[in-house]
């Protein structure tokens, strides 16, 4: 066994100690590599073969060889022997123990002991229990994903960990599903330890064993503390000690390694550490470890006592001579309970074996600093009468040398030793050659000879009553790992002058300040006797002192409430601070041994003798409790106040929001100009021509609307994952594709001067403007931008493109929308005269259109309005044909562009509202809808440009209006440039017409004018829809419908169908169908009526949004899609009187000037205009009409399959359709399904890689690509790109980037929805992702 021990000795040396040394930074010079090796040593994958195996071997050793032998060796290997000295000064001869390193090594030594005695990995712990422990340990260090747990669980040969993995996981952890944040932060599914784990199973020792980094342990303690606080298991402000766990019993084949704690060597070491702890030289973590070890010693000794009959309890041996660092001989027995009571009196210090005769100038600063530290360490007395110590010439003295110098040398047995022992000069680093000598020495020898200490050595008794603060840093500042309680502790320790005076009664009268003692001085006088330190403490007395110190009250331990505490503590998991654990230990001692119990009582009386003092203690205890109660009450109060403040803040915010909203409504009362707060200079001013204010806006191109698909298909197209689906995915059924075809046709049949004014564009590459709602002076913004350009702080920001972050909310912006001075100024409102007839209003509207031209201006406001228009133009991604070309620009294109911006933004808002104005009462408020919009300021800016463009185009908008209404033309047509091929009114887009009129009319018209305009456009829309619907009917069906019509009136669908049939029935519009009129022909008028209403809805929605924004009329509360039409026509005042539901149909919303024949004449004019086009181009006319109004689905991303495997299988080897090679990183556009060669040169054109080019083409600069090989989504937004995350997660809602783990992955509905929402809401730029400039290289 001894041979084996020798070998293991080396193992200890090489592995365990080295490991702790490295962690403590002793091997710094070896660089980082050595640290890496230490990490490998404990890493989970290797721990089975490395650290655990070593530990097992050591545990076996510890039980097979003499405990004192084992312990002494360990103490030396950890280089803590020197630390165990009570001498005030520690010679620097031991290179390991310089300054800061001694506490960490001591801590490591105790950690090692605690690990040794409590780990049961190979000592009979069941496999399940072991796996549970490992899992708990991992979870306590941090929440983990399923795969992290799988990966980090230590592997053991021959065990099937997966068998009980899931059941254990369910037992110890709760699953926390990933939450999605609006900012775009995405979490993965996590496992978090159950509350019970923290109470019962969190094992700090095992965490320390497995923690790769020290901070992992710290984290686990922080988490434990947090749990304890939240669960109210801890008094507020108190930091818990690590809850070290009592180990289970070993398997029968093994002896309990705790046996080593029954050694007197350990007892002596514990006493020394406690002694230093009371002096304040030890971190709380070290205290916690010692208390734990002592507790285990009590438990194991108790077990032993129960087995054996009690040995004769030896009485105290205080008279024995004790030598410093000679731990083996401080106690004469191994009985714990005896040793707990044993009072250690005086300890003889060992002269320093350094022979160099150096004299010190004692007043050197350095010396003073050191000495203060040193003398603080112990009470050194010069007792010239009784104290004896070993003389230098004595042989026993010499034989003692090797140990005290802390070196490992061959044993020289006492008798043969001569004075100049080579041991004294040998280097302390010499390798381990043999067993330490101590154990072989007969104890008596050492005790015989003691020599009185000569008086001339001036030893400073640095009494604790000294006014000088101790130079030693309080233990809180030591590199301890005491769970972050440093701050609270430091408070206690920082007042040693007061508290310690009471706690450590001084026994010496010698208070004089004298020169610090230097052991080296003995060198000059070979006969000098070593000094001594008076300890006069037992472990019990030290524990009592420590308890008092930790709780901050003298005589704080109260053994009387023992019983009640015991009953409650039995079933409760231990959670508490230092005082709690010391108390627990003391109670355990009292329970286990009555002699000790009595000793505790006696010691208390001795330490705090006077009744007065005890009363004082009692009072203080009560005070503390009262204080604690008061503090808790205060805390509650503060919490309440904070809550209240928070609520108030929310209320204020809400109120402000309401204020801002209601400002518009109260405008009629307020005559003063509206003021805005500038977020840069904080001043509130109105926006004026000279000093304009603006809204912070982000302008971007959008193709979201263009991705609407035709109604009738499944709402979502599917990303094909087989050939069949590939056939099915159509690219031509989107609004963008439809519009392209339409434009081509329009251009073929009509003059651009006309058709440019008949449509809107911007479905594909339109301009979207959004705001965060913050205002600023344009001047202020300019200086802000200037400073941004010079600073260039945000790497992803491009100030040269005008980009900046809103100074207030930090949202991305790239322009500013000037606020017209007329905004909110109701004095400029154009009011209608009361009781005007409709004809008069139409007349006035016509005049407004003719007269309301933009007056040229050079004000700052005009400049700003020009600037934002420039920003909008440069941001578009419109097809070249609409962009003003240098060679052949037509003024109409500018007008088209301007009105289309209004259209795009209204349509986008509609999409963000879910595609209709129906508000679901079940679903939460739409997350897509921005909190603040800028439609009205935008319309003001657009109106200025529209008027300018109208003049440039020389377009008589008022004439179009007159045509629309059927008013007689007042100005001879000959005065105008004739348009040869004009688009008939029946083929013009009614929404485009409405927007044109709204932008050309004064924006502050009375609502009556707006309503009338909407009514006029609705009339046209209605007949367009009727004509379109009639094209879907056979002539027989048309005849059938007409047969039930009332002539001369338009009151229902049959009437209007009859009217259209009358006007157009004779043309070639209707393809001759052979089916003759038969009796059996049936027609479902109800279904047709519904279709008519459905086709009218898009116009009604946009008109309603306009009214809502321009006049701040709250939108109707529409709950079902069936009621949308009727609610909107009432909202728009197309119908004002109530009527029977049975009479209601789309035609009742028609409005014509009364007492005129316009209700027949106007539609007839439109029809004849169209009929002449039919006669020219029959097929085109019909196809225009048939596809005039289309119902679209809201835009959607492509539907993805549930299993990722389907995507991978189908796409990972699919060639790109452009270069026909298989891309390295195949990526699929989720808007259209196109495969692109991400980052590859093969498909690079004009230095732009394929994904970037496709994003521009397909999404107007916004691209959403699925990278097949990595499962990740890449989002391209303009000149930036980001890695968005994965839509596919495994069973535990974790990502598997690059498919490294190869788990089956399933579509995450939440993430998919989030991605789509961000796309639809144009919010990619506002997500908290890492955006980088892609430089066209994706
Ligand atoms: Zn300002
Ligand atoms: Zn802002
Ligand atoms: Zn695409
Ligand atoms: Zn390609
Ligand atoms: Zn390619």
UniProtKB/TrEMBL annotation:
TM annotation in the entry: none
Listed EC numbers: 2.3.2.27
Skewed-composition ranges (Basic residues): 510-520
Molecular function GO terms recorded: ubiquitin protein ligase activity; zinc ion binding
Top EC category: transferase
Keywords: Metal-binding, Transferase, Ubl conjugation pathway, Zinc, Zinc-finger
Domain E3 ubiquitin-protein ligase UBR-like C-terminal: 891-1320
Catalytic reaction equation(s): S-ubiquitinyl-[E2 ubiquitin-conjugating enzyme]-L-cysteine + [acceptor protein]-L-lysine = [E2 ubiquitin-conjugating enzyme]-L-cysteine + N(6)-ubiquitinyl-[acceptor protein]-L-lysine
Feature: compositional bias, Basic and acidic residues: 616-633
Keyword Magnesium: no
Example GO biological process: ubiquitin-dependent protein catabolic process via the N-end rule pathway
Pfam annotation, one family: PRT6_C
Domain E3 ubiquitin-protein ligase UBR1-like winged-helix: residue ranges: 132-232
Coiled coil: none
Family matches, as InterPro entries: E3_ligase_UBR-like_C, UBR1-like, UBR1-like_WH, Znf_RING/FYVE/PHD
Pathway where this protein functions: Protein modification; protein ubiquitination
Gene Ontology terms: cellular component: cytoplasm; ubiquitin ligase complex
Location of region: Disordered: 498-532, 553-572, 609-633
Protein function: Ubiquitin ligase protein which is a component of the N-end rule pathway. Recognizes and binds to proteins bearing specific N-terminal residues that are destabilizing according to the N-end rule, leading to their ubiquitination and subsequent degradation.
Family assignment from sequence similarity: Belongs to the E3 ubiquitin-protein ligase UBR1-like family.
Identification of the protein by name: E3 ubiquitin-protein ligase
């Amino acid at each position: 066994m001894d041979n084996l021990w020798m070998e293991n000795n080396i193992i200890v040396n090489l592995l365990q100690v080295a490991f702790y040394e490295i962690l403590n930074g002793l091997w710094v010079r070896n660089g980082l590599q050595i640290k890496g090796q230490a990490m490998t040593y404990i890493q989970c994958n290797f721990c089975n073969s490395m650290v655990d195996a070593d530990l097992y071997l050591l545990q076996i050793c510890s039980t097979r060889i003499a405990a004192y032998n084992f312990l002494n060796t360990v103490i030396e290997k950890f280089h803590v022997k020197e630390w165990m000295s009570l001498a005030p000064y520690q010679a620097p001869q031991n290179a390991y123990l310089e300054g800061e390193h001694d506490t960490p090594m001591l801590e490591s030594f105790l950690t090692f002991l605690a690990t040794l005695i409590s780990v049961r990995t190979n000592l009979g712990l069941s496999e399940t229990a072991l796996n549970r422990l490992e899992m708990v340990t991992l979870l306590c260090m941090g929440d983990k994903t399923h795969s992290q747990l799988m990966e980090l669980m230590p592997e053991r040969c021959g065990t099937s960990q997966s068998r009980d993995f899931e059941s254990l996981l369910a037992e110890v952890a709760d699953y926390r599903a990933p939450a999605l944040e609006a900012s775009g932060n995405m979490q993965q599914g996590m496992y978090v330890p159950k509350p019970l784990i923290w109470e019962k199973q969190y094992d700090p020792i095992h965490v320390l064993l497995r923690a790769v980094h020290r901070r992992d342990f710290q984290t686990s303690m922080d988490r434990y503390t947090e749990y304890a606080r939240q669960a109210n298991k801890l008094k507020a402000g108190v930091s818990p000690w690590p809850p070290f766990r009592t180990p289970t019993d070993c398997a029968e084949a093994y002896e309990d390694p705790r046996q080593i704690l029954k050694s007197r060597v350990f007892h002596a070491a514990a006493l020394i550490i406690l002694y230093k702890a009371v002096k304040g030289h030890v971190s709380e973590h070290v205290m916690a470890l010692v208390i734990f070890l002592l507790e285990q010693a009590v438990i194991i000794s108790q077990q032993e006592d129960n087995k054996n009959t009690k040995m004769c309890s030896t009485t105290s041996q205080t008279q024995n001579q004790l030598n410093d660092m000679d731990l083996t001989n401080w106690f004469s027995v191994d009985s714990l309970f005896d040793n707990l009571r044993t009072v250690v009196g005086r300890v003889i210090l060992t002269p320093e074996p350094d022979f160099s005769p150096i004299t010190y100038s004692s007043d050197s600063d350095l010396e003073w600093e050191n000495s203060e530290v040193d003398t603080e360490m112990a009470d050194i007395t010069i007792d010239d009468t009784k104290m004896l110590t070993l003389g230098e010439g004595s042989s026993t003295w010499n034989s003692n040398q090797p140990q005290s110098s802390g070196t490992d040398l061959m044993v020289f047995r006492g008798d043969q030793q001569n004075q100049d022992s080579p041991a004294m000069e040998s280097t302390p680093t010499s390798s381990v050659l043999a067993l330490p000598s101590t154990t072989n020495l007969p104890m008596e020898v050492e005790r015989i000879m003691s020599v009185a200490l000569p008086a001339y050595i001036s030893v400073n008794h640095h009494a604790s009553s000294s006014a000088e603060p101790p130079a030693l840093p309080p233990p809180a500042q030591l590199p301890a790992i005491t769970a972050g309680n440093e701050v609270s502790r430091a408070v206690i320790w920082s007042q040693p002058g007061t508290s310690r005076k009471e706690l450590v009664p001084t026994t010496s009268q010698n208070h004089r300040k004298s020169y610090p003692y230097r052991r080296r001085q003995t060198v000059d006088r070979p006969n000098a006797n070593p000094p001594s330190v008076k300890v006069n403490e037992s472990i019990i007395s030290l524990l009592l002192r420590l308890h008092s110190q930790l709780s901050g009250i003298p005589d704080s331990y109260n053994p009387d409430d023992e019983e009640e505490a015991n009953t409650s503590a039995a079933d409760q998991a231990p959670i508490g601070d230092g005082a709690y654990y010391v108390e627990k230990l003391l109670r355990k001692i009292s329970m286990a041994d009555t002699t000790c119990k009595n000793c505790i009582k006696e010691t208390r009386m001795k330490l705090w003798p006077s009744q007065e003092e005890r009363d004082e203690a009692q009072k203080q205890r009560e005070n503390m409790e009262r204080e604690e109660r008061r503090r808790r009450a205060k805390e509650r109060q503060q919490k309440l106040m904070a809550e209240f403040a928070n609520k108030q803040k929310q209320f204020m915010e809400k109120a402000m929001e309401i204020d801002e909203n209601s400002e518009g409504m109260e405008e009629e009362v307020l005559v003063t100009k509206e003021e805005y707060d500038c977020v840069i200079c904080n001043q509130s001013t109105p926006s004026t021509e000279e000093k304009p204010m603006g809204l912070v806006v982000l302008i971007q191109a959008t193709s979201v609307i263009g991705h609407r698909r035709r109604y009738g298909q499944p709402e979502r197209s599917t990303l094909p994952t087989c050939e069949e689906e590939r056939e099915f995915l159509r690219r031509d059924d989107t609004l963008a594709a439809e519009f392209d075809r339409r434009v081509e046709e329009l251009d073929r049949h009509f003059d651009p001067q006309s058709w440019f004014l008949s449509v809107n564009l911007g479905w594909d590459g339109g301009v979207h403007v959004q705001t965060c709602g913050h205002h600023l002076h344009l001047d202020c913004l300019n200086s802000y931008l200037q400073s941004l350009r010079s600073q260039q702080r945000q790497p992803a920001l491009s100030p040269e493109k005008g980009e900046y972050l809103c100074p207030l909310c930090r949202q991305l912006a790239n322009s500013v929308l000037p606020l017209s001075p007329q905004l909110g100024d109701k004095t400029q409102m154009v009011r209608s005269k009361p009781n005007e007839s409709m004809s008069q209003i139409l007349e006035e509207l016509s005049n407004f259109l003719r007269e309301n031209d933009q007056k040229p201006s050079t004000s700052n406001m005009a400049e700003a309005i020009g600037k934002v228009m420039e920003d909008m133009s440069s941001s578009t991604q419109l097809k070249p044909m609409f962009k003003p070309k240098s060679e052949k620009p037509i003024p109409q294109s500018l007008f088209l562009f301007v009105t289309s911006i209004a259209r795009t933004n209204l349509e986008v808002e509609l999409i963000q509202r879910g595609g209709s104005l129906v508000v679901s009462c079940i679903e939460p408020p739409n997350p897509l809808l921005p909190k603040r919009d800028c439609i009205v300021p935008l319309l003001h800016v657009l109106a200025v440009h529209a008027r300018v463009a109208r003049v440039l185009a020389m377009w008589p908008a008022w004439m179009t209006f007159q045509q629309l209404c059927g008013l007689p033309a007042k100005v001879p047509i000959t005065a105008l440039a004739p348009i040869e091929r004009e688009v008939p009114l029946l083929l013009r887009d009614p929404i485009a017409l409405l927007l044109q009129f709204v932008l050309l009319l004064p924006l502050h018209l009375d609502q009556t004018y707006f309503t009338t305009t909407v009514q006029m456009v609705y009339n046209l829309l209605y007949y367009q829809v009727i004509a379109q619907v009639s094209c879907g009917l056979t002539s027989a069906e048309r005849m059938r419908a007409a047969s039930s019509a009332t002539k001369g009136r338009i009151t229902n669908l049959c009437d209007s169908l009859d009217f259209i049939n009358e006007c157009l029935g004779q043309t070639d519009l209707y393809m001759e169908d052979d089916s003759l009129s038969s009796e059996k022909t049936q027609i479902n008028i109800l279904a047709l009526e519904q279709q008519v209403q459905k086709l009218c809805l898009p116009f009604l929605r946009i008109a309603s949004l306009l009214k809502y924004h321009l006049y701040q009329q709250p939108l109707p509360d529409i709950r079902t899609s069936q009621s949308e039409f009727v609610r909107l026509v009432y909202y728009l005042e197309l119908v004002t009187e109530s009527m029977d539901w049975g009479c209601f149909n789309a035609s009742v919303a028609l409005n014509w000037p009364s007492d005129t024949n316009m209700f027949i004449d106007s539609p007839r004019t439109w029809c004849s205009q169209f009929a002449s086009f039919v006669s020219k181009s029959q097929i085109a006319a019909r196809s225009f009409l048939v596809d005039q109004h289309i119902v679209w689905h809201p835009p959607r991303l492509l539907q993805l399959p549930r299993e990722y495997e389907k995507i991978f299988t189908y796409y990972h080897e699919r060639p790109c359709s452009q270069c026909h090679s298989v891309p390295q990183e195949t990526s699929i556009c989720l808007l259209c399904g196109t495969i692109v060669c991400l980052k590859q040169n093969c498909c690079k054109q004009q230095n732009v890689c394929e994904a970037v080019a496709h994003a521009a083409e397909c999404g107007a600069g916004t691209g959403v690509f699925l990278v097949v090989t990595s499962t990740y989504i890449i989002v391209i937004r303009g000149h930036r790109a980001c890695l968005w995350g994965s839509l596919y997660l495994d069973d535990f809602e974790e990502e598997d980037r690059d498919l490294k783990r190869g788990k089956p992955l399933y579509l995450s509905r939440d993430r998919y929805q989030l991605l789509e929402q961000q796309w639809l809401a144009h919010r990619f730029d506002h997500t908290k992702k890492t955006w980088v400039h892609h430089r066209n290289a994706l």
